[in-house]
Every structure is written in structure tokens, then in C-alpha cells.
Amino acid sequence: MKKQRLEVGLLILGMVFLQGARAQDSSDESPRLVRVSDSVFRTVHRPGAANSNVIVTGEGLIVVDGTCRGDGNPEWLKQELDRLYDVPVKYVILSHDHEDHICGLQVFDDTAVTVSHARTREHIVREGRNTSVPDVVFQDEMEIHLGGKRLVLYYFGPTHSNNLIQVHFPEEGVLIAPDIARAERSLALPDFRDADIDGLIDTLAILAKLDDVELVVPGHWGPTTQQSLLEYRDYVVALRDRVLEEMKAGASIEEILERVTLDEYADYGNFDIWFRANLISMWDKMYRYREPNLEDSGDYQTAYPIGFSVGVTGMGSNQ
Ligand SMILES: [Zn+2]
Questions:
Q1: Could you give the angle at which helices 197-208 and 271-289 cross, rounded to 10 degrees?
Q2: Contact 90/62 with Cβ under 8 angstroms?
């Protein structure tokens, strides 16, 4: 009986919710919650804003990420959820420490436990982020059970940042993968700042093969599929390999900027404005990644021209 009542209650909640969402669809940028799956909703407002996701259960709500920039900020979300549901937000999950994905989420501190990777909490405290400081942290994997629903939180090591997690809701085939998944045919992000390239490539392949995934919710824009994870992996591999090829041949960053064009991706969204920064930041990563062979002179400075002195030529000066 209890379960039946719960299901009926959820159905009514869902109907009320859909009516509310439809009523606001007429205004393009007015903040609204859009259904992703039966129990998962996404905040839509300013185009390109970081996604905020809500998982609805009969015993409480779970919020994954939120951004304080734009009308669909956590304060608006809190009011909207109070209006639509009789149950409070029980958990807030922070995907990673980047400020545009988590700012303002402390508005849920009155009812919610905040969860993140252990490193996310370290970054939040160090940087004094404008968000909820996590109450519960984990290392590799954890589960959250609420209202008969199960979320699995994964950490596969450093990727887009050293603390990014993914949130999987197997029952409804939804994978929330901020800033590692991307919108269809688009460069995911302006640059690779804070990224681990090998970890990013490996984890994209793992996520692309994860079972029980029908929809992937990126950090920005609407849902995509596991295929886009593979396509993004191919792009990162192609960019990395072209940059390494040029560096191994001795090319300078100026020469690399001229020679590496990756024309096959030129039709991707944001290619015109982001490719240069993608290229420079990939070069920066690869610059630290490899140890080149010394030239014939054996001069370490020549082989590794970092632009400032690394000491006197030769390595035996303190004999
Ligand atoms: Zn990020």
C-alpha cells in the first residue's frame, strides 16, 4: 500500500511538474526545469550555462551541480523545487570544484548533505569557493540510496580536473558527466587548463562503454549520447598526437600554431574561437609531459628551451 501511494504521489507530482515546465517554454531564456528522464530534470536558462540537474524521489530530491550565473541560479531552483514538491533537497552532489558548476549551492545547506570527491573539498576550501563545503567525501566510488532509487558516483582519476566525478542513475539510463561529455559535434571546452590528458582519454573510453547509459548529460547544453564521448576522445587523441609529432620534430609553439590545423574538425561548434586555446594548452601539457632527447651538443638548455635559465650549461658545476 505504501508503495502504491508513493507511485500515485509521484505521478501527480510529475503531471504538475510537466504543466509548469510547458507553461514556461514560451520564453526562451526564462529559467525552467526540463525533463531528461522519468525522474531526472535539468535547469535550462541562459544558453550555455552550466547545467543543474535534479533527481526526484518520493523521499527527497537530489541536486547535481548548479550555477549562480543567470536567472536559473540555486536560489531560483530552491524556490521552484519548494513550489513543485513536498519533499526537500536531501543531497547536493558537486561534480568537481570549478566555480561555474557549483556556486551558490549553499542555499540547500538547511536540508541537504553535500557530497563530493575528497579532492573537490580540498580545492573548495583552498580557493574559498562560493558554494557548500562538502559534508561527505569519497575516493573511488559511492552509492546514494533515496526513495528506492540508487545513484552511483564514480571517480576514475584525474581527467578534466583532478577531482571530477560522474553521476550514474542506472535505473533510468542517465549518466551526468559534466565537462567531460560535450554537446554533439562541439569542442568541449575552451582549453585544457587543469586537465590530465591521458586520464581524460582513458576515462572517455570507460564512460563510452559503461552499461545502462541511454543519455549523457554534459556540463553545458542538452543531453547527448555515449557516441559523442568517443568522438571527443578521437579529437583529443588527434590533437595530442599532432602536437607531439611536431614537438618531437623540434617545432616551436609558433610553428605548431601554423602547422596543426585539424581541418577535419573545423565544422565543430566553437572551433573558430576555441581551437587556438585548445592547441596552446595541449602544447603546454605536452611540454611538461615529455623529456626530449638532448641535441648533439648535449646542451640541456638548447634541448629544452623553457625561456629562462635552468642553470649553467652542463650538469657538473658543483663538483
Ligand atoms: Zn570544469
A1: 120
A2: yes
Edge-to-edge strand ranges of the sheet holding 40-44:
32-35, 40-44, 53-57, 60-64, 89-93, 113-117, 136-138
Q: Are 296 and 302 in contact (CB under 8 A)?
A: no
Question: For 74-122, how does the pLDDT look when each residue is reduced to its tens digit (9 = 90+)?
Answer: 999 999 999 999 999 999 999 999 999 999 999 999 999 999 999 999 9
How does pLDDT run across 230-285, given as a tens digit for each residue?
Answer: 999 999 999 999 999 999 998 988 999 999 999 999 998 889 999 999 999 999 99
Q: Tell me: the pLDDT tens digits for 195-207?
A: 999 999 999 999 9
**88: exposed, middle or buried (Cβ count in 10 Å: 0-12, 13-18, 19+):** middle
Between the CA of 100 and the centroid of ligand 1 the distance, in Å, is 8
Distance 161 CA to ligand 1 centre (A): 7
CA of 99 to the centre of ligand 1 (A): 8
Per-residue pLDDT band at 184 (split at 50, 70, 90): confident
CA of 174 to the centre of ligand 1 (A): 20
Q: How far is the CA of 95 from the centre of ligand 1 (A)?
A: 9
Angle CA 59–225–207, to nearest 5:
80
CA angle 126, 156, 57 (to 5 degrees): 85
Cβ atoms of 92 and 112 within 8 Å: the answer is: yes
Farthest CA pair distance, the chain: 85
Amino acid 308: pLDDT: 53
* Residue ranges of domains in the chain, CATH in brackets: 9-137 (3.60.15.10)
Strand partners, 149: 146
Q: What is the distance in A from the centroid of ligand 1 to the CA of 96?
A: 7
Q: Using the predicted structure, report yes or no on whether residue 18 has a pLDDT greater than 60.
A: no
- The H-or-E segment that residue 265 falls in is none
